[in-house]
Design brief:
This protein is of the alpha+beta class and 183 residues long. Helices cover 26% and strands 27% of the residues.
């Protein structure tokens, strides 16, 4: 017996949200599938919140920091990364969530969601052309940085626990790894 999954478009997903069908669920759309999101543990919530505040101060008016808000990707995905560093488009975001061309990079904090963030979301973000994707592994207290997309796959992976890193979008700004991990 073969199983056929129903795939959803972004428009269908939005209609479900507007109709209130998903109002009591913590979900995101990943490659046309509605996927339950893991609840945030205290370390997850603390670390992502602190990093969001740090990045907002560090980047100032150069970017907006969106925490746990949807981004719209062309592969029928509307994930809600813990942090998305995006262009400051103001009221334009009343009409649509950030698209790949509006996104500088995204950060996910992972404990129970580590497998999803390292396998599924890595592919989704690379296929959508998100130039940089950071994953904070809360279990190992490290930062994994994915860059350099080739044929819809990140070809560069770097793991850091200390020091500084420059994002591709803002190479003149040093980001303290410890401030992103918040261990």
């Amino acid at each position: 017996m073969s199983v056929i999954l129903a795939k959803w478009t972004i428009d269908e997903y939005h209609r479900m949200i507007d109709a209130g069908i998903l109002s009591d669920r913590q979900v995101e759309l990943l490659q046309g599938e509605i996927v339950e999101m893991s609840p945030e543990s205290e370390p997850h919530a603390y670390s992502s919140d602190e990093a969001g505040e740090y990045l907002a101060k560090l980047l100032g008016e150069r970017a907006s920091i969106r925490e746990a808000k949807p981004i719209t990707l062309p592969n029928n995905s509307e994930p809600e990364p813990d942090i998305a560093i995006v262009q400051r488009l103001g009221r334009e975001y009343k009409q649509h969530h950030p698209y790949p061309e509006n996104i500088f990079w995204v950060i996910e904090y992972a404990n129970s969601s580590l497998e999803k963030d390292l396998e599924i979301k890595t592919k989704i973000y690379a296929q959508a052309g998100i130039l940089e994707y950071w994953v904070v592994n809360l279990k190992k207290q490290n930062l994994i940085i994915f860059r350099e997309i080739l044929n819809g796959v990140y070809t560069s992976e770097q793991t850091l626990t200390t020091g500084t890193i420059q994002s591709l979008a803002f190479p003149d700004i040093n980001v303290a790894v410890e401030k992103i991990i918040n261990n």
